[in-house]
Specification:
By secondary structure, the chain is mostly beta strands. The chain is 10% helix and 44% strand.
Length: 320
C-alpha cells in the first residue's frame, strides 16, 4: 500500500512539473512575439523589433519585396515562386502562387503593392506581367496594360488610385490608372538627370513627389507629380558629389518626409531628411538581429514601421 502511495505521489509531482514547464515555455514563447504597434516616440531613430521567417517547413527564400495591406504583411517569396502572408505576430498565415506562366503562377515575383480594396498586385519580372489577387490570394486578373509597354516590371507602388511601375530593362518609370491607361512615363537609358540604368523601386510621398532608385547610377532621383526632375539623393552633399550608395534598391518615405534607401551592397539602410541631409543608417552586414545581408525591398506603413527584405538571411526585418 505504501509503495502505491509513493508511486501516486511521484507521478503527481512529475505531472505537475511537466505542466509547470509547459506553462513557462508557453509564456516565454508568447513573450517573443512582438505585435506591430505605433512608435512610442515618433521622432526617435527606428530600432529592430522582430523578424519574419515564414513557415517552418518552407521558410522564405530570397524575399525581394514587401508590403502591408490592411493588417497583413505580404512578401514576394521569389525563389519559392509564391507570395507568403504574415499576421502581425510574425506568423505565416497562408501563401499563394506556384511556378509557371499561367494565371496565378510566377517565374520571378518581385514588386508587390496593394490597393484600397485590399487587392494584391504582384509584378513578375520574367513573365513580364502584373497579376492581381484578392486579399486571400485568389487570382482575379492580369493588370490591363492597355498599350503593352511593360517588358520587365520590377518595383510597384499604388498611390491615389495610380499604379507606379519601374521597368528595369526599359530603364523607365510608368504611371497608370488602375484600369490600365498609361498616364505618364519617365526616363530612358542614361546617366543624365531624368534617365535611369536599371531602376528597381519607386515610391510616392504625401506631396505626390515620385522617388526612384536608379540602381545602375547609384542614386535616387526625385520628380514632381508631373514627372519633372527635382533633385538627386546619392549620399553626397546636395546629391552633387560622388555617390556613396552601392546598388540602391528599396525606397520609402515616412510620415515626416524622411527618405529611407536600401543600400544593397553596403548591407544597410540610409535615412535622409526631406532636404537630402543624411540622418542615420540602420543595419550593417551580419546575421544577428538588426543586421542585414543584401537587403532589397522596403516598405513603411502608416505607423512608420519599416519592413525590409533581408534576402540572404531569408527574413523580413522589422524596425519601429
Amino acid at each position: 500500500m505504501k509503495k502505491r502511495t509513493v508511486y501516486i505521489l511521484m507521478s503527481t509531482i512529475v505531472a505537475l512539473s511537466v505542466a509547470f514547464f509547459a506553462v513557462v515555455y508557453f509564456f516565454n514563447l508568447e513573450s517573443d512575439i512582438k505585435p506591430i504597434v505605433a512608435k512610442v516616440d515618433p521622432s526617435a531613430e527606428p530600432v529592430f523589433a522582430n523578424a519574419l521567417y515564414g513557415e517552418f517547413n518552407q521558410p522564405l527564400n530570397k524575399p525581394m519585396d514587401v508590403t502591408k495591406i490592411g493588417e497583413f504583411i505580404y512578401v514576394s517569396d521569389t525563389n519559392n515562386k509564391q507570395v507568403q502572408v504574415f499576421d502581425q505576430s510574425g506568423t505565416s498565415v497562408f501563401k499563394f502562387g506556384t511556378e509557371g506562366t499561367g494565371e496565378g503562377q510566377f517565374k520571378f515575383p518581385y514588386g508587390i503593392a496593394g490597393d484600397k480594396d485590399g487587392n494584391v498586385y504582384v509584378a513578375d519580372l520574367y513573365n513580364a506581367n502584373i497579376s492581381i489577387f484578392n486579399d486571400k490570394g485568389k487570382f482575379l486578373k492580369y493588370f490591363n496594360d492597355e498599350e503593352k509597354v511593360l517588358k520587365s516590371p520590377g518595383g510597384l507602388r499604388i498611390s491615389d488610385q495610380k499604379l507606379y511601375v519601374t521597368d528595369i530593362k526599359a530603364n523607365k518609370i510608368f504611371v497608370f490608372d488602375l484600369n490600365g491607361k498609361k498616364l505618364m512615363e519617365i526616363g530612358g537609358a542614361g546617366a543624365d538627370e531624368g534617365k535611369f540604368i536599371a531602376p528597381n523601386a519607386v515610391t510616392v510621398d504625401l506631396d505626390k513627389n515620385i522617388y526612384v532608385t536608379d540602381s545602375g547610377n547609384n542614386r535616387v532621383q526625385i520628380f514632381d507629380k508631373n514627372g519633372k526632375f527635382i533633385r538627386i539623393i546619392n549620399g553626397s552633399k546636395d546629391g552633387k558629389g560622388d555617390p556613396t550608395f552601392l546598388n540602391p534598391r528599396g525606397v520609402a518615405v515616412d510620415s515626416k518626409g524622411n527618405v529611407y534607401v536600401v543600400n544593397n551592397l553596403a548591407h544597410n539602410i540610409n535615412a535622409f531628411d526631406k532636404d537630402g541631409k543624411e540622418l542615420f543608417d540602420l543595419g550593417g552586414m551580419g546575421t544577428e538581429n538588426g543586421k542585414l545581408y543584401l537587403p532589397n525591398g522596403l516598405f513603411i506603413d502608416d505607423r512608420d514601421t519599416l519592413f525590409v527584405t533581408d534576402t540572404v538571411n531569408q527574413r523580413i526585418s522589422v524596425y519601429y
